[in-house]
Design brief:
alpha/beta, 7-stranded parallel beta sheet, globular
């Protein structure tokens, strides 16, 4: 349908947005795609703009629509990788917990927020629906807030609500939110997932990232009991575990009986299941990534992926083959929280190879996203390397044991040739 403002006309965003404004919107399924489509269609008339974007899911922002914009992001996921490779996107390497402050104070402070909301409830309030997340902090400090009221957005418990007095302008739409289905799960990925699942105990509180591997891990947990969720995201597989009674949150120390996340990221069944679901609650990043909340969570089991890990436990989660495809993200926030949580497990999981190359390496090919000073348990399909409290030489030995057997001789030679100074 054609979006209209309160006068029935297609909105002219130049009435609200000034040249060089910083424009921020929700990521993944929470992107208000009608508003972002209008912004991109009108960008030449508005003037050069700055934008801060997150993970794309069927996003209106593409290589073809990005000229005239200065784009910033915390990640290189999805189509962001092509934008970065073309010189259209600058990555800000930052912990996820720092994003709200980044957008409310400092050089990336938001001037304009585009927000997607649900239809109103009986009190006239609109739910953020698909994400509270990091961007919602900017709603309090931005000069302009423009809402897209989408009748296909769920009213999700816990998520911040807005009334008509909280925005500058609004449009009404009806469209399926952007979908972010899980990636292709290979047999190698399943083998890694089975190893990780073997570490997860009944009653654990789970955190997991986006992608095929985290969803594969969740898919291996069908025989567990009373799992909980406190995560940056909630996906389709996690929602199925809630509906099947595997995730009950009965043993959580906080938010007992409730799955907590900052972002719903998946497909239509997830969106429908979240609507007015008392077992699900969305919160802003200030809560989902709060170090004290994480440290006091019952058996917080953080499952994060990586591009490569070196023999001493340094993790690169950002670049592959010279391309920026990942992020610092929330991994360190959750790994630290899991390490402090009673019975918690700080896990980094990855297949041991990709395209014939070892992902357990003697020297990282990219930046250190997670330093070796963080307590880690590294998992591949070949085993589990618990590096917590170990000196460097012992770490090398354990990492060699979980590398692909075909690559171990070369890694051993590289380790012998390079002193592993403490």
């Amino acid at each position: 349908m054609t979006p209209t403002d309160s006068t029935g006309a297609e909105p002219d965003l130049a009435r609200y947005i000034r040249p060089h404004d910083m424009v921020v919107w929700g990521q993944a399924s929470a992107e208000p795609r009608t508003l972002t489509g209008l912004l991109l269609a009108q960008r030449a008339r508005i003037g050069r703009l700055r934008c801060f974007v997150g993970i794309p899911a069927e996003s209106a922002l593409t290589l073809e629509t990005s000229d005239g914009l200065d784009i910033h992001s915390y990640c290189g996921s999805g189509t962001n990788a092509a934008l970065h490779a073309a010189g259209r996107l600058d990555v800000v390497p930052v912990h996820y917990s720092a994003l709200p402050r980044l957008l409310t104070d400092g050089p990336l402070r938001a001037d304009v927020v585009l927000v997607q909301v649900s239809p109103p409830d009986e009190t006239g309030r609109h739910s953020l629906g698909l994400a509270d997340d990091y961007f919602s902090a900017a709603l309090d400090t931005a000069r302009v807030v423009i809402a897209e009221i989408n009748d296909q957005v769920p009213f999700t418990p816990g998520a911040r609500t807005l009334g008509t007095g909280d925005w500058t302008a609004a449009i009404h739409t009806s469209r399926t939110p952007g979908r972010l289905p899980a990636g292709r799960v290979t047999e190698q990925t399943r083998a890694v997932a089975r190893r990780v699942a073997g570490l997860i105990q009944d009653g654990a509180t789970l955190q997991f990232g986006i992608g095929a591997l985290p969803e594969a891990v969740l898919g291996e947990l069908g025989d567990r009991r009373d799992l909980g969720i406190h995560s940056g995201i909630l996906n389709d597989t996690a929602m199925r575990l809630i509906e099947e009674g595997i995730v009950t949150g009965a043993r959580k120390s906080l938010d007992r009986g409730i799955a907590v996340a900052g972002l719903l990221s998946g497909t239509e069944p997830l969106f429908r299941a979240a609507h007015r679901n008392p077992r699900v609650r969305l919160h802003g990043t200030a809560y989902t990534h709060d170090p004290e909340v994480l440290a006091t969570s019952h058996q917080l089991t953080a499952v994060n992926s990586a591009i490569e890990v070196d023999l001493t436990g340094q993790v690169n989660a950002e670049t592959a083959g010279g391309r920026y495809v990942g992020a610092v993200g929330g991994a360190v926030d959750f790994l630290r929280g899991a390490a402090r949580s009673p019975g918690g497990l700080p896990i980094v999981a990855l297949p041991s190879t990709a395209r014939g190359r070892s992902r357990i390496v003697a020297r990282l090919d990219g930046p250190v996203s997670t330093p070796r000073s963080e307590p880690l348990i590294v998992v591949t399909e070949h085993g589990v390397a618990d590096l917590r409290g170990l000196p460097v030489a012992a770490r090398v030995e354990r990492m060699l044991a979980i590398a692909d057997p075909a690559h171990r001789p070369g890694l051993e030679a590289a380790a012998e040739a390079t002193p592993t100074a403490a």
